[in-house]
Design a protein that fits this description.
By secondary structure, this protein is α+β, with helices and mostly antiparallel strands. Helix content is 39%, strand content 15%.
């Protein structure tokens, strides 16, 4: 993965990293991935991962995208992907999917694309390969689009998916079924939930945060 030195006086995110003696992009990625996985008080605040000492797949990768832009590294892209969340991915949702005769529900995730490679810094052991073969669509977004744009894109995708697959649920109904799946992921205690998967959807707190309107 490419690396670059974080320059002084480049912006608020560069300053936050330098104040923590984090001097280059590789170190910044490592730092972000090791921050606790948690919901942020205000996802529209680009400094929220520092203020809250933690973050979600959305806020962590938005921070890294902003850092790259401040240091004139525009080839570090922020990606929004939608993938098949099914029982193979997380067995906890099998009963809910079966009860509504669904094989999967499309779910959303943020990560980075750098040149032609993909990277996930949600957690130290996160890897793009963990959900790559389940991806349905992905697009580039900007660091300030992780709330409204993410929700809008996800819901628009679901509308088309329901139509294309001739699934007899409305958008509101499929959203409620999705919420049941998220609740399934909360059945164990918080410690297990926080360590159950490196991808934000299986860790569910990010999903609850991103889609709370």
């Amino acid at each position: 993965m490419k690396n670059f030195t974080i320059d002084k006086n480049k912006g608020i995110i560069s300053k936050e990293f330098l104040n923590r003696n984090i001097l280059d992009f590789h170190s910044a990625c490592k730092y972000v991935s090791e921050l606790p996985y948690k919901r942020n008080a205000d996802k529209s605040n680009i400094k929220c991962v520092f203020d809250d000492w933690g973050g979600t797949c959305s806020t962590k990768h938005a921070t890294l995208r902003k850092l790259a832009l401040e240091n004139h590294q525009s080839d570090v892209k922020l990606i929004l992907g939608v993938f098949k969340m099914n029982a193979e991915y997380t067995f906890k949702i099998k009963n809910t999917l079966d009860s509504f005769s669904l094989n999967y529900i499309p779910e959303a995730h943020n990560y980075l694309k750098i040149d032609d490679e993909y990277f996930d810094f949600t957690k130290p052991d996160s890897k793009y390969s963990q959900f790559e073969n389940k991806l349905l669509i992905e697009k580039e977004i900007e660091y300030n689009e992780i709330v409204t744009e993410k929700i809008s894109f996800h819901k628009n995708f679901l509308k088309k998916w329901l139509s294309d697959e001739s699934i007899s649920y409305s958008l509101d109904e499929i959203w409620e079924i999705r919420e049941k799946c998220i609740k399934d992921l909360q059945k164990n205690d918080e410690v297990e939930i926080q360590n159950s998967s490196s991808v934000c959807f299986a860790n569910n707190l990010d999903v609850r945060d991103d889609y709370k309107l």
